[in-house]
Input
Amino acid sequence: MRTAALIALVAACGAKQPAGTWIEREAPLGRSRAGGAGPASDGNATTSTAIDVSNIDALDEASVLIALERAGDAAPAGALALRAARLAFHRGDAAEARRWIARAGSAADEASVHAKLQALAAQLAAPPVDRATVAVLLPLSGRFASIGNELRAAIQLAPAAGTTWVFLDTKGEPDGATAAVDAAMAKGAIAIVGPVGQREALAAARAAALHQLPIALLAPADGADPAAGVFRLVDSPADEGRAVAALAQTESFPTVAVFAPRDDVGQEAAEAFVAEATRRGLAVTGQGTYDPTSGDLEADLKQFLNLVPARNPRLARHLAKQGAKGWKTFSPDIPYSLLYIPDRHDRAAIVAAFLPYYGVELRTEDFPDPVRLVRKHGGVMPQVVQLVGGAGWNHPSLPIRGGNAVQGALIVDAFVGDLAGDLPGQFAAAFQQRTGRAPTSAAAQAHDAALLVANARAVAAQASGDSREAMRAILARGKLDDGACGPAAMDVDGELHRTPAVLEIQGDQLLLVP
Output
């Protein structure tokens, strides 16, 4: 799950990224033609067998490809391969550039471009891998510096298992993240942890994949590609929505609804909740949204509850008889037994308080009095609704803000502190001592991500051969037997999976549901 603070700043939305989308580049030269076929051509490609050596540096990739295929090892193959290497280097594909430099070695004119090939090779020479170093990409300055420093403190509290953490500032921007990946390569890092924002994480993942440098993202957005060395180690809004749907099925709520803020986070959580609930055979009988920037929720709430007189004849008749006070005495038709509100605790408290005002009967106690309910609702037994929130609800002030409306509400979150056992409690206490405040769910998940990466690095450091490839393979099957957020294991899609905890509001406390 994500914390409200982190999600408000760095939330992501959209469907999971398909495999391979991390690497943005043109098709590698020399791989676009099957054996025996004629050379490819387009409007820009040269079709002449004669090559003007003085004009090679003006050729585009398609033209270079055709010319190289025609030349074989004859001159000017060396100059053409140098041009191909420079173009690959320009777009950030160092591995492809090195392949073209090697190709130039057998060309008849290699001697004439040898110095230039050597100079480019020196630029491409990657520093040796430091098997102890893991780069951590965080926004340590700029708008999101508070988030970066919070996660830095959480990562520093993770047992390092011999790992040297090198913290690099992304400034919360894609360009900063790309530059930080380059810096991680220069320092010989065996892997990267971070960044935390969707846009910077996407930029960093693409750059890291080109460098074949494993990266464990801390951005709360669906999408990973283990084959390219891109992993995600924190939960997304969609993960939360799916977890709430699973809870609804486990607790036997056959009809469900969602009322979400009209923002990226709310949309992602709501869409995932609806999809997962449907997949599990639950009936989604209510969907609505509200403006999170407005101080007036009544219009959106009336729309969601079907309390618009023009479209609800029963309500119109009731108001005609009762007048304005009829809003307080009308019993709405509620077709769902569970309502999910994926928002921050402060706004969720306001939404929850409006529900009973408009006649929605919330489950605020284990065994409500049916006689009282029937009498209250004009002789009809109402549908009692279970409220459910996510990590944004996990705040000690929620019981006070929400009052009786949130009593009995359930909260799904990855991190519940010392309620979950010794290790989460120890982390919470250490974080409080270091920073002077309680850790968020985002901080706890970053701590566990660092723990998993550190353990993987310790194993990869002992492997023979390519240590980064070993790191990628170990992360792809990584797991934690325990952590601040409990046990976790990597799915085949490269995303870390954990079973969240469930809290219930009782009085002024948030208590763990067994």
About this structure: The radius of gyration is 29 Å. Confidence is low (pLDDT under 50) at residues 1-49. The CA atoms of residues 297 and 351 lie 7 Å apart.
